[in-house]
Design a protein that fits this description.
The protein is of the alpha+beta class and about 160 residues long. The chain has three helices and eight strands, in the order βαβββαβαβββ. A hairpin with an 8-residue loop joins β3 and β4. It starts with a strand and ends in a 7-residue tail after the last strand. This is Protein ElaA.
């Protein structure tokens, strides 16, 4: 699909409609699809950098870059979501690569930590993330903390 547009914005740069669409996608996936009632709006978005993709004015993928100390001691990538109709098209890979590159550009090479759903260990592992915790339940869904070490990717 050549009409996919990628965007990166600070919270205050998002329009009301963009914010609404990002929150709707995240809620549709993390709360409704995964049948997991939890506080999706967690108070962190205002401090994050948001990366998202649109297709025909619809948000189809999103993630946020979370500053160090807000979720983890390290900078992190969170709320990675792809709309169901777009999951087999490789947009998850593009989204993660863009997030990693944006961190390097804006903040320099550094360790990146994520809290991944366990079934996605191999996916995140393909970007250099390695488990840094035992598996644990978060909102009744198996998760694992993973870190991508900057030292392995520095030249």
């Amino acid at each position: 699909m050549n009409s996919i547009h990628w965007h990166t914005k600070l919270f205050d740069e998002l329009t009301v409609n963009e914010l609404y669409d990002i929150l709707r996608l995240r809620t549709d996936i993390f709360v409704v699809e995964q049948n997991c009632p939890y506080p999706e709006i967690d108070g962190k978005d205002k401090q994050c950098l948001h990366i998202y993709a649109t297709h025909q004015d619809k948000v189809i993928a999103c993630a946020r870059i979370v500053p160090p100390g807000l979720s983890y001691p390290e900078i992190s990538i969170g709320r990675v979501a792809i709309a169901p109709d777009y999951r087999k098209d490789g947009y998850g890979r593009v989204l993660m690569q863009l997030a990693i590159e944006k961190i390097a550009q804006e903040f320099g090479e550094q360790d990146i930590q994520i809290g991944a759903q366990c079934y996605l260990k191999k996916f995140y592992g393909s970007f250099g993330f390695k488990p840094s915790s035992d598996d644990y339940l978060e909102d009744n869904i198996p998760h694992v903390d993973m870190i991508r070490s900057a030292s392995e990717y520095s030249n």
